[in-house]
Amino acid sequence: MSELIRSRRAWLGAHPLVADALTSAVLTLACLLVAAFQDSYGLPGKQPDLVSGLIVGVVVMSLTLRRRMPVAVLAFVLVGCLTLTALGYVPMLGPAAAYLIAIYSVASHRGLATSLPVGAFGLMLFIVSMALDGYWFWQAVSNSVLLIGVWWIGRSLRLRRAYLDELEARARRLERAREADSRAARAEERSRIARELHDVVAHHVSVMTVQAGAARRILHRDPEAVQDALSTIEQMGRTALGEMRRLVGVLRTEAEPARSELSPQPGVHDVNGLVDQLRETGLQVQLWIEGESRALSPGVDLAAFRLVQEALTNTLKHAGPQARAWVRIQYADRQLEIEVEDDGRGLVAGLGRPGGNGHGLVGMRERVALYGGDLRIGPRSGGGFEVRARFPLEVQ
C-alpha cells in the first residue's frame, strides 16, 4: 500500500498540472458545500445562489494554471472577487481561499521583481475590498497580516527550492568531475600496465630471436639442441601471444615510445624482498606463501607483485605508525589467491570510500580485471583494511 502511495505521489510530482487540477476540483467542491450552508453573520448582501456558485467554481478552478501563469491566475481571481462584490454577495470562503493561494503562487513561482509589486498591489486591493465588505478594522489588519504571511511563505519556499537546485547542480558537477578524474586515472593506469606488458612481450620476443639464431647456427651439427631451442621458441611464442592479446585489450590510448632497455619485471618471487624493504621502514609485516609454487604467466606474475606492492604502500601511508600488516599468497589448483590485511586506520584515511580518488586502487582493479580475476577492497572485520584478490591460472 505504501509503495502504491509513493508511486502515485511521484507520478503527480512529475505532472504538476494534473495535481493542481485535482486539488482545484476538491477545493471547488468544498467551497460550494460551505457556501450552501454559510451563515452570513449579519453581514449585508445577497446570499449564495447558482450565479455565485458558478463564479466561485470558475475562480477556484482557475488555480489549475497557478504554476504556469501565476500572475494571470491572480488577476483572474481578483476579477472574480470584485465581480462578486459588485453583485452584492456576502463574503464567501471560496474566493478568499483562491486569492490567498494565488498570492502564494506568485511569490513561489516568480522572482522578486515580479512577486513584490504584484503582491503589494494585491494587498491594496484586498484592503479596499474588505473595507467595502464591511469588515472591522482589526479584522482587516489580521487578514492583511495573513496575506503578507502567505506571500512570505511562498517567497521562502522559492528561495529554498533555488538553494536545493543549486546544491543538486553542484553535486552533479562534482560527480562529473569525479568521473572525469576516475577516467583519467584508469587511462593512466592502463597506459602504465600496457608499458609493462610491452616489456614482457619484448623480452619473450628477444629470447625467441636469440634461440632462433642459435638454432640456425647449430642446425646441422646438433639436431637435439635445435629441437630444444625450437621447443623454447614455441613456448615463448605462445606466452608472448597471450600477453600481446592482453596488451591490445588494455591499451586505450596511444602507446608511448618503447623504452630501450628491457629490464626484468618483478614477480611473486620478489615479494620477499619487497617485505624486507618495508620492514626496514618500520612497518611490521608478516608473509605466508602457501601451496606448491608454480610458474606463472609473466603478466599474472607482475600483476600479483604490483597488487601486493600497492596494498603495502597504502598501509605504510595511511594505516598509522603502529600498524601491522599480513600478506598471504596461496597457490591453489586453478587460482592464485592474495590477501593483504592491516590493523590500522585505512578506512578513516579515505581508502574505503567507493570510487575514492586513489590511483593505486584504480590500478589494482584494472590489473585484476585484465586477467579475469576478482578483487575485494574494504574495511577489515575487527578494524583495519584488507585487499583480497584472486587470479585464475591456466591449467598447464
Automatic annotation (TrEMBL):
Residues 157-184 form a coiled coil. The chain crosses the membrane at residues 17-37, 49-65, 71-90, 111-130, 136-154. It comes from the Bacteria. SMART domains: HATPase_c. Keywords: ATP-binding, Coiled coil, Kinase, Membrane, Nucleotide-binding, Phosphoprotein, Transferase, Transmembrane, Transmembrane helix, Two-component regulatory system. Its EC number is 2.7.13.3. PROSITE patterns: HIS_KIN (PS50109), PROKAR_LIPOPROTEIN (PS51257). One of its GO terms (molecular function) is protein dimerization activity. Residues 306-395 form the Histidine kinase domain. InterPro entries: DUF7134, HATPase_C_sf, HATPase_dom, His_kinase_dom, Sensor_HK_TwoCompSys, Sig_transdc_His_kin_sub3_dim/P. It catalyses: ATP + protein L-histidine = ADP + protein N-phospho-L-histidine. GO terms for cellular component: membrane. This is histidine kinase. It comes from Actinoallomurus bryophytorum.
